[in-house]
TrEMBL record:
It comes from the Eukaryota. One of its GO terms (biological process) is cytoskeleton organization. This is Tubulin-specific chaperone E. Residues 27-71 form the CAP-Gly domain. Belongs to the TBCE family. It comes from Grallaria varia.
Length: 531
């Protein structure tokens, strides 16, 4: 090997112009002179072949066009961490030169040289480095830790480090850096394709205080995560998006302090693996976006009960997946602490043509949900969704053996499996009566007309008016109609409604963008207008 090729070049990460790759071969190539590096590029479009040249296979690539040969002087093998920090924060050797030119001052005709100014500048630089708490050397070509103990001498107060998109080739390098940072709390090493340990012999105490770790796009597997996690005793947030995680295993005795786990953009081979990572007692947020999940099931309890799995989970993201059955939504009601759900872009979302209907069904099925797809669920919206759900499936409940007389109420197991919350809704609002269910229109019927009485309680001279309005009409459009009736601008109107079922209570119609059906208004109700 020539002098410009590091002795450990094979397997090292390199950059060339704006491209990143891994050295897969070092040596000669037939009918050429000198040493070549065979590189497998992260972006296959940068490559030319699969590692073969004129019939000889020098190295292998995952992509048939992912490799090429470059001369060693074209490859950047990176710099050590302290050098990158000094370069990024303007504390490098170039400043020494500038300081050196200022060591001589002229007073009249006399030239005075200040001896020792270089050492003073060095001391000042060390002080500046030692004050840094948050350090980002993203895309600074960091490849190794540098001289032993240099980091601990120069950057003693670091707590948060961003090492993303560098030239780190192995987890050992990360340990070498972290072991010199006594109070490390946050570490981002995303976008470094590196080798991870295969045995527990590489477990280090370097991460004993680490709370947040990002390993996105590092090609780590779940088995490697569990192995390394033995060295993360205080970790609270773990980001593992876009990796090689295809199979999950139960995390026994590791990750028990974890509050947030991001597994998004990992293509799980089995779409029903959620219960395997459900034994994380402190997990509050789980991100499973685009992971090929097709179903959700908590097998430890039956419908209508709360699972012991994920007892503190408050926020769950399962958008961009393959969930197609309502049974998976029913299962989410088993989570005792779930408050926020993201579930857009699943086949299930196509089962209802009306998005408002879909939203109401999800709200009714998950009792404690407060935020759905980043939208807050207001108390009036929950009440309306649950009342509608109770009515829509009331006839199915009766056919399945349901009855308003508790002694005769024996709905089938099949009905309870499909609608596990129905009994609790009957307890909350009362069982639907037969007259209440007659002629009930499907919830998806658009523009169903409501016969409403419009009153102005503070203007007795205004006589009540009866109007037929579509239930899909927004409050804003209702105000437009009222403007034509009363000649009062919509911005000055305050609307509410009362119903015989609300026992004299008024419900404010306070969101101009919501339709009448959002508030569960029914024919015969009275809209109250004030200004």
């Amino acid at each position: 090997m020539t002098a410009c090729v590091p002795p450990d070049a094979l397997g090292r990460r390199v950059s060339c112009d704006t491209h990143y790759g891994t050295v897969r071969y070092v040596g000669s190539v037939s009918r050429t002179a000198g040493i070549w590096l065979g590189v497998e590029w992260d972006d296959p479009q940068r490559g030319k072949h699969d590692g073969s040249y004129e019939g000889t296979q020098y190295f292998k690539c995952r992509h048939p066009k992912g490799g090429s040969f470059i001369r060693p002087n074209k490859a950047n093998f990176g710099v050590d961490f302290p050098t990158a920090v000094k370069d990024r924060y303007g504390l490098n050797d170039k400043q020494d030169v500038q300081c050196g030119t200022q060591n001589i001052l002229v007073f009249g005709t006399k030239t005075v040289e200040f001896v020792g100014m270089d050492s003073v500048a060095e001391q000042q630089r060390q002080v500046q480095l030692s004050k840094l708490v948050d350090i980002s050397v993203r895309e600074c070509a960091v490849s190794h830790a540098g001289e032993p103990e240099e980091i601990s001498r120069t950057c003693a107060n670091m707590r948060h480090i961003n090492l993303s998109k560098n030239l780190i080739s192995s987890w050992e390098t990360v340990i070498a850096i972290a072991s010199q940072v006594q109070h490390l709390e946050t570490l981002n090493v995303s976008e470094n394709k590196m080798k991870f340990p295969s045995t527990s012999s590489s477990i280090s105490s370097a991460f004993s205080n680490l709370k947040i770790l990002a390993l996105n796009q590092t090609e780590i597997t779940w088995t490697e995560v569990l192995l390394c996690a033995q060295g993360w005793p205080a970790l609270e947030e773990l980001y593992l998006s876009s990796n090689n995680i295809t199979v999950l295993e139960r995390p026994d005795n590791v990750l028990q302090t974890l509050k947030l786990l991001d597994l998004s953009d990992n293509q799980l081979l089995d779409g029903n693996q959620l219960h395997l990572i459900a034994h994380l007692p402190r997990l509050e947020q789980l991100i499973l976006r685009n992971t090929d999940i097709s179903s959700i099931h908590f097998p430890d309890v039956g419908f209508g009960c709360k699972t012991k799995m994920l007892p503190l989970l408050k926020r769950l993201a399962i958008n961009d997946n393959k969930i197609s059955q309502w049974s998976s939504i029913n299962e989410l009601d088993k989570l005792p602490s779930l408050r926020s759900l993201q579930c857009n872009n699943n086949p299930l979302m196509d089962t209802e043509k009306n998005p408002e209907t879909l939203k109401q069904l999800i709200i009714a099925k998950i009792s404690q949900l407060e935020v759905l797809n980043n939208c807050e669920i207001l108390p009036a919206e929950r009440r309306g969704a649950e009342l509608d759900y109770r009515k829509i499936f009331g006839n199915d409940w009766l056919k399945a053996g349901g009855h308003w007389n508790p002694e005769k109420n024996r709905p089938s197991e099949e009905f309870l499996a499909a609608h596990p919350r129905y009994p609790s809704l009957c307890l909350k609002y009362g069982a639907p009566e037969e007259g209440e269910l007659k002629g009930r229109q499907p919830l998806t019927l658009k523009n169903q007309l409501l016969t409403l009485t419009i009153k102005c309680p503070e203007k007795p001279e205004q006589k009540p008016v009866e109007k037929k309005l579509p239930e899909s009409m927004t409050i804003q459009k209702v105000k437009g109609l009222l403007y034509r009736l009363f000649k009062i601008p919509g911005s000055e109107l305050k609307l509410s409604y009362e119903s015989s079922k609300l026992e004299g209570k008024e419900v404010e119609l306070d969101n101009d963008l919501k339709p009448l059906q959002f508030y569960s208004i029914e024919s015969g109700d009275c809209v109250l207008v004030r200004w």
